[in-house]
Amino acid sequence: MTDFSRSLPLVGASNFRDLGGYAGHGGQSVRWRRLFRSDHLAGLTQEDTQALGELRLARAFDLRGRLESAAQSYALPDVRYHALPIEPTVVQRAQEMARAGQEMTAPIARRLMQDTYRAFVSDNAEQFAALFAHLLEDDTPLVFHCTAGKDRTGFAAALILRALGVADDVVLHDYLMTNDLYRRPAAVGGSAPQEVLDVIWRVQADFLEAAFEAVQRDHGGLDNYLQERLRVNDAARARLAQLYLQPHG
């Protein structure tokens, strides 16, 4: 048994957690204290930064769009920063609807979120391919994040865990953990109805399922998608397992 905690209680980030401990290929567990996912890191306190230093965090991968990362930039001591920008689309689509006088409803928001996840698969493969390339360089502890650590980050975490052989239901469980951990900023929302905010600022199983249905429909399955679009072939997957799975005994 390990006494590692999955969620790290930081003051300036609410969705920072470890992907370790899940059973992967051959029953080998994902190594603890190597792979972290989070919401944005611009609000970290000095104590938070010290806590990340104790984790020996060495790499940060920022999936936020360019304006998002510019508005809330950060630098962590001894951590190499890499921008892999995926531009947000849901807020932009909502604003376009508002300008056109169209009402945003929860079902429309749900469809927008599903479309967003399908777009991760088709439009943002290069960013996820770059993330895997960095993962394959070495096993120094890293964090990948976006603004809320739920959509771009959630899909990235799901890809990594599934590439390591973690079962689909476990991957979904990790994905949905955001609903328990993420603290929504008090300033968001404007005039949007609460039911709409609850769609946009939370995660639902059918969001992630929309992405993997697109992977199956358009690429013939995850193995093909990893190899053809993310440049993660069998040899790369074997190295990924060597780096991030705990050997037996």
From TrEMBL:
Protein's recorded name: Protein tyrosine phosphatase
Family: Belongs to the protein-tyrosine phosphatase family.
Signal peptide coordinates: none
Molecular functions per Gene Ontology: phosphoprotein phosphatase activity
PROSITE patterns on file: RHODANESE_3 (PS50206), TYR_PHOSPHATASE_1 (PS00383)
Rhodanese domain location: 124-180
